[in-house]
Amino acid sequence: MNIGWPSPSLRRLFGTDFPIIQAPMAGANLSTMTIAVSESGGLGSLPCAMLTPEQIRHEIATIRAATTKPFNVNFFCHRPPAGDLARDEAWRRRLASYYEELGIEAAPPAPSRNSFDEALCTVVEECRPPVVSFHFGLPEQPLLARVKRTGATVLSSATTAEEARWLEEHGCDAIIAQGLEAGGHRGIFLSDDLQTQLGTFALIPQIVDAVSVPVIAAGGIMDARGIVAALALGASGVQLGTAYLFCPEATISAPHRDALNDKRGQTMLTNVMTGRPARSIATRFILEVGPLSPLAPEFPLAVSAVAPLRVAAEKRGRGDFSPLWAGAAYPLGRPAGAAELTQSLARDTRDRLRGLSSIDATSRSPAKSRSPVTDSGMSAVGLTSRWIAASRAIESERVDALFRDPLARALAGDDGFAMRRSMGMAMSTGDERDPHLAIRTRFFDDALLAAVSGHQSPQVLMLAAGMDSRAFRLAWPADTLLFEVDRQEIFDWKEPVVARSELAPRCHRRIVPVDLAGDWGPRLLEAGFDSKRPTVVLVEGLVMYLDETEANGLFRALRDLVPEGSWLGMDIINAEMLTSPYTVGLVKRLEELGCPWKFGVRDTDAFLREHGWTGTLTSPGDPDANYGVWPFPPVPRHVPNIPRSFFVRATRVQS
User: Fold this and answer.
1) Span 341-361, pLDDT tens digits
2) Euclidean distance between the first and final Cα of the chain, in Å?
3) Residues paired with 21 in a beta bridge
């Protein structure tokens, strides 16, 4: 695949399709992830710092049995600690109250991370991996020379331009520029002064200017936007670690995965987990003892004192003492398989590079009139979600608002308001209120909270979530797990807006980027959805944009994913909405904008029964869907040939 990467140097050096490296994450990935990334065109990495020589041999053999593509093996090369008995005893005294709390005994100090030595070098000589990377500098010159003689490409991390020059002088073939935002251990090795540490995008150009070998950007890069920015600053490729922690191949603990998916935590540098500064999501232990403590023993001896606490707490389902390694941009992570993630990163990077080329070409050509739908960078159907957000923003800012959405204006952006204006008066009254949208939003706000009321740890599924912000604004019961499902382009816009707002979700929120017109069920299950658990489902503002085949396919898939007793909230239109002279202007305008309505039901009750649901239908203006703002008299249900929209509340029954 010709992606059009600015520099081919790294791809030639590694022999990969893409200059994308999956970071080696000790304790968080093994050969399964390595294979998936390498097979999909990136450079998969195997972390070896916590493996024995025999385990490394086994993992490399597993990789070679599954792929002929290049891969990387990674080693730490820290100075083995001499040990300090007084410091160890002081550390255990500091932790004594935690041992007492959990009812366990302290463990004796012991190394937990292997430094590259004679035995590990022998493994490299025997297995001859194509790429070998190091963290914390480089091994002693005799060992490094033996590695180089195997023909391996050698990498290491630099956190300053000075370290980068040192690495090049000592034989590195490419250098990883590790910015301060990176998760896990800082690669700093020429000093221990954290004041020297720079952010990724300040560091990249300084290292690019300081060395002649290819530079790989690392730290805070979670998606194609970060990759394009790093390439623009002169990097030849990128290394991502935290993004791959969201993959099912990641061998992390349940509390670690929960913390990543929760997205509300703050990351910070701490030495209390291992004795060396590393970026983790803040935990009780880090906040109470650190984050940086002078009492922590030298790396990696601090681990042995904390490990029993971690094990005991994780058995109780708690991550209080776990190293929740994560980069500063971890809220941008999304669940996906490692192969799918690698390919989507490459594909999205290609698209953004092409988009930038198009912008550059446009800037050199005569100006053209701009359509908010075709030129915004988002599909027409995707833009409808921002138009809805614009209407919600206008409603929220009214004195008599039916709801308050603090994110709506930012989520709409200029393009959302532009599309709303392009609709003219088709969807609003003279005071700019969209009464249908206002009522629909409030109706489903109330219906959702009623559906989860009294349930312990409810599971909520929002299909075609768009710019919905209910995860942030509704008072969900404790431990509500809410899945938002929509296309990748939606979350590419939405997640940075949410991150900038600094609002925390009021539930456990997980995003699932997938096209609902395709096979979306497996992606939802990969994200942790429990198909055996009664679920509250919302399908709002979607069905009319699907054709009949797609609509039936969506509900067949839903029927297979949620059990009896589940609840459904949905809006749907009848067939007359597509043909009535009363709605012809609206339907025509939507078609002109590239987002036509395609499907209206003949018999809503029959449609529900066909797909395993039974429920009630409410129309805007009915007593429980009026709120004093519906401007039209209600038309009795028995009157034929009237265009109608319905708000559905249904229960899953045996089908």
Assistant:
1) 999 999 888 878 876 654 444
2) 45
3) 43, 239
